[in-house]
Amino acid sequence: MHKHIWRRASFRLVPYGVLSIAGATISLVANNAHGSTLDRRLVAALGMLLFVIFAVAFLHVLSSAIHGMIASHRLGAGRAAAMQFILRAFGYIVILLIALELLGVPVGRLILGGAALGIVLGVAAQQALANFFASFVLVISHPFMVGQHVTLNSGALGGEYAGTVAEVGLTHTRLKLEDGTSALLPNATLLSGAAISVQKPKPASETSDQPKANS
Known about the structure:
Helix content is about 65%, strand content about 15%. The protein is of the alpha+beta class.
């Protein structure tokens, strides 16, 4: 199903991407061209505006396609919406920085300061970031889906957990255990060291024939 999602999205992603690149190119050429300063700034501003419009459109189509892919893998509507929000927020920041650069605003110091702040925050929240990025790998590899009965075995988890996957979050996976309680398991631990056994549902023919055999 996700192939159909990407095929449908590509009809808009390609033209939006081409037009956004064209707008950025026009703005860059106008900034470096000779001639009237007012004319160059006007053309540069129009090119920047063209870039912003189609870059935002590209971002929305891309994030919607990713949202549909995550939802089709039965990884939870809440997780799909959260990842869509994060992707759009990050995309808006990138578009803003590029737009400022096209207008001639020096953003090097802003990027340098943001990188330094990112390193500090990354060290402080190393485990949370590890779980966050592990969730993206789980989306791509999808070793299990919401609603499946799984058995997880890992020393880092403190033993074995068996139950039904209730939710795959951005940092933790919620497992509904067989005794009715719930357990929140870190995604990084599941990805790095957990042995995952997925219980496959029995074929319909077996379930329908079993009462007859017992009778």
